[in-house]
Specification:
This protein has a 7-stranded mixed sheet, with no helix packed on it. Strands 9, 10, 11, 12 and 13 form a 5-stranded antiparallel sheet that branches. The radius of gyration is 16 Å and the shape is globular. The chain has 2 domains: 74 residues, 2-Layer Sandwich (60s Ribosomal Protein L30, Chain: A); 121 residues, Hypothetical protein, similar to alpha- acetolactate decarboxylase, domain 2 (60s Ribosomal Protein L30, Chain: A). With 213 residues, the chain is mainly β. It is built from 4 helices and 14 strands. Keywords: Acetoin biosynthesis, Decarboxylase, Lyase. InterPro entries: Acetolactate_a_deCO2ase. It catalyses: (2S)-2-acetolactate + H(+) = (R)-acetoin + CO2.
Length: 213
Amino acid sequence: MSTIYQFSTFETFKNRGFDGCGTVEELLEYGDIGFGTYHALNGEMIVLDGVPYRADGDCRILRADENDRTPFATVSDFTPDTYFEMGEFTGMDDLCRQLDEQLKSQIHERCLIGRLDGWFKEIEIHSVWPVENPYEALDEIVARQKCVTLKAINGTLVGVRCPEWADKKNFVGWHFHFLSKDHEWGGHVNQVSGEQLAGSLKICHQIECIDHH
């Protein structure tokens, strides 16, 4: 059965569960595509083609170390089940609506994980600088972060879509992290518009939390 694997749960993470509970090396044993964050919110994680990247608080990309720890991350072994192309989309809501419409026959309360490659007219991303314990609430930390807007840029959206039954385990609906084609920029996607994306997605039937002890 196709599976999405993750360290911790979103419910635990958003309730100040920011201490790393497993290493990047351990995470990559379970998949070669996905995203998450690092210990004490030290940047946004993007895993693409088996390579772990870290977007720092300025959304500049660094290669992550295999010993870096993560409090929350989602990955899968990327063997796509469906390929498709998309035309113009004017924002995040429009992108998600078009994806759901195009994939509705394959969703059926399943999870999707994969990538959208192409040219983006404009994309707004953010990342995080590390925080200190005792931790503030996640919403308060994110609200302070600087957003970076990139225009006319090629890159990849690494995305996951989870249905309602995944609530508290992961994000419900679509969630995207971005990595530019030149591996210079990346982070969590707030808003996006573009044209002509090539998509490849894997259909997963379950979410399994990794036993990292």
